[in-house]
């Protein structure tokens, strides 16, 4: 069973269309596959299977290293060269050309693909999420914040581009909103910033805004995470 979700399509201008993303995929190592063979009651012991698999991999690698192509039930390969050759007398230069290996599914994997059952699931969130806010000066967590203090936000996907004034940590109160002054730590799971000293006392909201994507690339869409618990600025 394979799970997939639908997400915004970044490659078109149509706001309605979506692209699919396969979710919750487990990866299986060679050791995992060997264990599956053993669990099914193989007459071979682990050492025998590991030796046979290792020998198979080594021979496949030898074929490719000698310029050959693989054509197995699992995978088929071919070699190609990218880059421009200046004329008919030019030769391969690793500084200008790249030797590549191309791989396609073999007959066994193609047959397996036909048997995959797909189930649509809700897309996992890519938005930032604040789990807790701590005042590093007073030690308070999820409560009062001292104006001009250093605060730590913990959560998920919190990293932002500090050079972009649209991104960062914002305190929103009765006197409007103010952005952090300096960044001390800025990673996906934790952000530590210095707050302005002139924040007005009283109840406030805290927002983290970022354009970073799940792969930590700089995107174009601004995403906001407003902290769900009540916070107050104290003098």
Gyration radius over CA: 27 Å
Question: Which term fits the overall shape?
Answer: elongated
Biggest beta sheet attributes: 6 strands, mixed
Distance between the termini: 57 Å
The low-confidence runs, each spanning 5 or more residues with pLDDT under 50, are none
Q: Count the E strands.
A: 15
What's the helix count? 3
Mean pLDDT: 91
Helix content: 10-25%
Query: Beta fraction of the residues?
Result: 35-45%
Run of helices and strands: EEHHEEHEEEEEEEEEEE
Q: Structural class, judged by helices and strands?
A: alpha+beta
Features:
single chain, 235 residues, alpha+beta, 4-stranded antiparallel β-sheet
Describe the SSE topology.
Blueprint: E1 2-8, E2 18-23, H1 30-39, H2 46-65, E3 75-82, E4 98-105, H3 107-114, E5 118-120, E6 129-135, E7 144-146, E8 150-156, E9 168-173, E10 176-179, E11 182-187, E12 190-194, E13 202-212, E14 218-226, E15 231-234
Parallel strand pairs: 1-5, 7-15
Antiparallel strand pairs: 1-2, 3-4, 6-8, 8-12, 9-10, 9-13, 11-12, 13-14, 13-15
């Amino acid at each position: 069973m394979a799970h997939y979700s639908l997400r915004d399509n970044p490659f078109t201008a149509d706001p309605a269309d979506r692209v699919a993303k396969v979710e919750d995929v487990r990866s299986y190592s060679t050791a995992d596959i060997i264990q599956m063979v053993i669990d099914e009651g193989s007459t071979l012991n682990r050492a025998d299977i590991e030796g046979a698999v290792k020998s198979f991999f080594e021979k496949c690698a030898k074929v490719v290293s000698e310029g050959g192509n693989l054509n197995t039930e699992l995978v088929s390969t071919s070699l190609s060269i990218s880059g421009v050759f200046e004329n008919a007398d030019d030769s391969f230069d690793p500084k200008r050309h790249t030797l590549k290996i191309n791989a396609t599914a073999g007959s066994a994997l193609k047959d397996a693909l036909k048997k995959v059952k797909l189930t649509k699931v809700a897309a996992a969130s890519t938005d930032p999420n604040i789990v807790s806010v701590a005042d590093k000066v007073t030690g308070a967590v999820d409560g009062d914040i001292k104006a001009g203090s250093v605060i730590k936000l913990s959560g998920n996907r919190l990293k932002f581009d500090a050079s972009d004034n649209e991104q960062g940590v914002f305190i929103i109160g009765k006197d409007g909103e103010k952005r952090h002054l300096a960044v001390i730590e800025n990673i996906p799971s934790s952000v530590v910033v210095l707050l302005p000293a002139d924040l007005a006392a009283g109840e406030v909201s805290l927002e983290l805004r970022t354009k970073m994507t799940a792969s930590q690339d700089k995107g174009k869409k601004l995403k906001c995470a407003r902290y769900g618990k009540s916070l107050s600025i104290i003098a």
